Amino acid sequence: MAKKESYEQTATELALKVTEPLGLELVDVEFVKEGSEYYLRIYIDKEGGVKIDDCEAASRKISDLLDEADPISEAYILEVSSPGLFRVLKKDKDFERSIGKTVLLKLFKAIDGEKQLRGDLESFDTANFVIATEKGSIGVPRENVAKISLDPDL
Q1: Is domain 92-150 given the CATH code 3.40.50.2300 in the classification?
Q2: Is the pTM of this model over 0.90?
Q3: Contacts by 121-129 with C-beta closer than 8 Å and gap 24+?
Q4: Do 42 and 78 touch, CB atoms closer than 8 A?
């Protein structure tokens, strides 16, 4: 297992010890390098939305657990936040929650000349996503989707 995946897995395990008792959902954990800095980003959510107090409480407790376990050898900045309005969808539970919502799909290979599709997520299974676009319903193979995120009308 690569260092990045190991860090993310350990951080996920530690974060779950905090988020579940606080009534928060752990949406995602990522360890990334931007410029010369490393960031450990932990995304949380809850019914009705995350407030700044939720992020602060989770951040303090997760930071304490990370300090105690010390699983990451690089210096990093811990960020705990909501996944935001344009959240990336990664797990089946994310897709289930997003049925009927507008999504943006970025594709590896173009479909009808388009490498990006926008529409309402109608359904999904292990092989495909089905989205309703202005041109009608389109089935998109999962292996052709580089990224899928919410794209709310603002």
Answers
A1: no
A2: no
A3: 121/95, 123/99, 124/92, 124/95, 129/95, 129/105
A4: yes
Residue found under tokens 């389109």: 138
**45-72 in b/e burial notation, b at 16+ Cβ within 10 A?**
beeeebeeebbeebbebbeeebeeeeeb
Question: CA 124 to CA 90: how far, in whole Å?
Answer: 12
Residue 104's contacts (CB-CB under 8 Å, 6 or more residues apart) are: 86, 116, 117, 118, 148, 149, 150, 151
Question: Is 1.10.275.10 the CATH classification of the domain at 3-81?
Answer: no
One digit per residue, pLDDT tens: the chain, 154 residues? Answer: 688 899 999 999 999 999 999 999 999 999 999 999 999 999 999 988 899 999 999 999 999 999 999 999 999 999 999 988 788 888 888 899 899 999 999 999 999 889 999 999 999 999 999 999 988 999 999 999 999 998 876 5
Residue ranges of domains in the chain:
3-81, 92-150
List own/partner pairs for 96-99 with CB under 8 A and 24 or more apart.
98/150, 99/123
